[in-house]
Automatic annotation (TrEMBL):
Protein name per its UniProtKB record: Ethylmalonyl-CoA decarboxylase
Species this chain originates from: Parageobacillus thermantarcticus
Single GO BP term: fatty acid beta-oxidation
Residues spanning the signal sequence: none
CDD domains: crotonase-like (cd06558)
Length: 253
């Protein structure tokens, strides 16, 4: 079964749908590879204007990394996994076309990091959203905290990270993380309606504005901070606190 579905529409949107509903659309290595491939295609294809990332079903957008696959990784192996996804999110962050996270259900952990790397976040009413990594004895490991602190005011970003709680869409809208709250009757059409003004622009205009917007994230200073975050998480990955938190997580699930 395909772990992700990639669709092109006539308006110039590429829809990337994580298709692992049985795992609450958790990310494994196969999803990573498919996302990397899709980002590269969107970058090169002049017929594509935007990339929208979403999840299958109405329960989960993305629950982060697949802990059933990654829980036994030790520090060095964990670092390789985290760096792999971190590099993918960095390429998403700096993509030369506008990007949207269409949050169709719960987004937690790495799912929030994935959404944060997108330019816009549109979320269905009633969803829960949480950077819950702290509850698992780790920090964000794909560059998500560095991205969050770039995109939100310092106090709001730090509050979200330190709370490590699931929050309502409305609360995250107040913080400025969610840009539009959707009713959910037809998420794609609601999303398409919001994107209509952007899609009326030429690809060259979209590329030019994205180049202006992302220039600050291509500096050596930003990249150093981004990948230092990943190294810190890798150290915590092998800690006893993280192991106990994961054991508790699987007992509850």
């Amino acid at each position: 079964m395909e772990v992700a579905i990639v669709e092109h529409d006539r308006d110039g949107i590429v829809w990337f749908t994580i298709h692992r509903p049985e795992k609450r659309n958790a990310i494994n290595f196969e999803v990573m590879d498919k996302l990397k491939e899709t980002i590269a295609m969107v970058e090169k294809n002049d017929n594509v204007k935007m990339l929208v990332i979403t999840g299958t079903g109405d329960e989960a957008f993305c629950s982060g990394g697949d802990l059933s696959k990654f829980q036994h990784l030790h520090t060095e192996d964990a670092k390789q996994m985290l760096e792999k996804m971190g590099k993918i999110l960095y390429s998403l962050l700096t993509l030369s076309k506008p990007t949207v996270a269409l949050i169709n259900g719960t987004a937690v952990g790495g799912g929030c990091e994935l959404a944060s790397a997108c330019d816009f976040r549109y979320a269905k009413r009633g969803c829960k959203i949480g950077f819950i990594q702290g509850k698992l004895g780790i920090t964000t490991g794909w560059g998500g905290a560095t991205i969050l602190l770039e995109k939100l005011p310092y106090t709001q970003a730090l509050d979200i990270l330190l709370r490590a709680e699931r929050m309502s869409v409305e609360k995250m809208y107040e913080y400025g993380w969610v840009h539009a709250v959707l009713q959910g009757d037809n998420l794609r059409e609601e999303c398409r309606g919001l994107l209509s003004p952007y899609l009326s622009q030429s690809v060259s205009v979209l590329r030019a504005y994205k180049a202006i917007a992302t220039e600050k994230w291509k500096s050596d200073e930003f990249r150093t901070r981004f990948f230092a975050e990943i190294a810190r998480c890798a150290k915590l990955w092998g800690s006893e606190e993280h192991k106990r938190a994961i054991e508790s997580f699987f007992k509850k699930s």
